[in-house]
Amino acid sequence: MNERKLQILKTVVERYIKTGEPVGSKVLAEEFKNTVSSATIRNDMAALEQLGYLEQPHTSAGRVPSYRGYRFYISHLMKKVPLLEEEKAAIDQKIVKGDLNPKTVISNAMELLADLTGCAIISKSEQMSFSVITHVEVIPAGRRLYALLMLTSNGAVENRVCRLEFDLSHEQIDYFVNFIQANITGLRVEDLTNEKVLELGVALGSYMVGLAPLLYGVYDITNELRKKSVEIRNESNLLARSDFQNRDVAALLSRKDDLEAVLDKAFDGINVIFGEEDGDFAITNSSLILSSYNQGDRPAGSFGVLGPLRLDYSRIIPYVEYLSDTVSRLMTEAFEADRDKPSRGVRRDIVIGPEDHV
């Protein structure tokens, strides 16, 4: 791979991204200002094809990049277009919109990335797992029916209706709310494990028979919050693309939760996956630019730009990098601000109630 072959590969990729047409030796000769003969260029293109970097759709046609050619271009030849300071400031303003709630920040970032790229955006957030339980309320909802209402630090409001064996007294309800306030409020969702709930059940003492269903109702809510969900934004763009077969897009959208395995491949930095290269992601002529974001030193989620193979990677990748860094920074700031707040009801030891009340 001498400098001339590298320049030929770079030109073929960039021209094909721009025009969608195979690139021939005449175009490449103009790139070299006719200082290299067409025969030499054809020989170099044939060598690049043998190495697996180029493909020839038809015998008389020019060459197009292969998956391997795209990957080499992105890793070694592409010059990223840096974002201007004005662009960064505009992005920051649109992501925050006066609300630093992590859920809102992520939603705004995905919406903005869809607008900037014109592609579909897939995302998976794990932020719910380590959001903090801020409030639990018990509301009588009918004979032996009680509604649990849970609020978390990221703004989620969840509820669950529990059916009990008998009606609870006001004293029992008050006891349960106070017990939750002392032992669960202030915990992260991921910290309310099955083992923790069993421990808390024992701590309920003589109240356990009547209140255990409510305790496990709280646990069920946190289990739902822990579930990872995949979201797709701007999916209509996939159907509008002539690059894609509609049946491939329909199959992807019908099993979007399968994309969780793909999103788990996001790691520090940028990862690019091409369609048909990956068993979990098989849309012909497509690419997925993946990135992850953190909350402090912990992974908080990942997102990907899903579009055609012919993407302007030099422009889109800097957007993805900046949005990933910005979301990580804002989520970390929100986490640290929440952590520094005086916490109410957070106890290291379980608070056990009096045994002589039923």
Task: Please describe what this structure looks like.
This protein is α+β, with helices and mostly antiparallel strands and 358 residues long. It folds into three domains: 3-77, Arc Repressor Mutant, subunit A, CATH 1.10.10.10; 85-126 and 228-340, Beta-Lactamase; 130-226, Enolase-like, domain 1, CATH 3.30.390.60. 46% of the residues lie in helices and 18% in strands. The protein contains 13 helices and ten strands. It has helices at 3-19, 25-31, 38-50, 67-77, 85-96, 102-117, 170-183, 194-203, 208-226, 236-240, 246-254, 259-263, 313-340; strands at residues 54-55, 64-65, 120-125, 133-142, 145-152, 157-163, 230-233, 271-274, 286-295, 298-308. The strands form three sheets. Strands 7-3-10-9-8 form a five-stranded antiparallel sheet. Residues 104-317 form the Heat-inducible transcription repressor HrcA C-terminal domain. Negative regulator of class I heat shock genes (grpE-dnaK-dnaJ and groELS operons). Prevents heat-shock induction of these operons. Keywords: Repressor, Stress response, Transcription, Transcription regulation.
Task: List the defining traits of the structure above.
alpha+beta; Beta-Lactamase; Arc Repressor Mutant, subunit A; five-stranded antiparallel β-sheet; Enolase-like, domain 1; 358 residues; 3 domains; 46% helix
